[in-house]
Amino acid sequence: MALGTATAPYELRFDSGRICLDLLATTHPEERLDSAEPLRAWITGSGLVPAGTPLAAADSSWIVGFRELRGHIGQLVSKEPSRDSRPFVIALARVNELARAATPVPLAVWDASGSLVRGLCAPPTCAALLAAVARDTVELLTDPAARASIRQCEGDNCPIVYLDTSRGRRRRWCSSEVCGNRERVARHRRRAALARA
After folding, report:
1. Measured in whole angstroms, how far is the alpha carbon of residue 91 from the centre of its chain?
2. pTM for the whole structure
3. Which helix (H) or strand (E) segment is 69 a member of?
4. What is the C-alpha to C-alpha distance for residues 168 and 65, in angstroms, rounded to an integer?
5. Residue 130: which residues within 8 A CB-CB, separation 6 or more?
6. pLDDT digit string (tens) for 86-135?
7. Is 179 helix (H, G, I), strand (E, B) or coil?
8. Any residues with CB less than 8 A from the CB of 121 and at least 6 apart, and which?
9. Is the previous residue joined to 29 through a cis bond, with omega within 30 degrees of 0?
């Protein structure tokens, strides 16, 4: 995909178990946040804002902020917490700083059919949305059970990080349909090749 080309929303992944980890998934298999349109799709798809929320203000400066936060999250979830690791300490300080901003304020509003739905009291700012993702990161890092459930996909060349909430905590792949299926096909081919040899 060429830089600047919009990414279709169906290509974005929201199956990691946390919003902050879903943001990490926007780098695989290539950069997904390459223009404002896919960033808007990610913001809506992640549930940070209700569907239909106008995000006209989301521009290239927002992309920079989300990519920066994504890099910090990657530093924080890929290693054990360490006060002695300068990159970890810097990433943690920046996430904590971003988490201080006010997050979008939700409201219960009536929709056209007369049902109550979630709305926002004002259009969300970049700082407010970054704060929501940063707070999700803080929650993940400070919840021992959730932190212990962080896994990296065992699929070939798959950097996706997810929460293993499976029974028995033995999930190996970010997606059984994608990476798991690739592994099963590769295993079948290896067995078939050995049988022919």
Report:
1. 16
2. 0.86
3. helix 60-77
4. 37
5. 65, 66, 69, 98, 101
6. 999 999 999 999 999 999 999 999 999 999 999 999 999 999 999 999 99
7. helix
8. 104, 105, 106, 107
9. yes
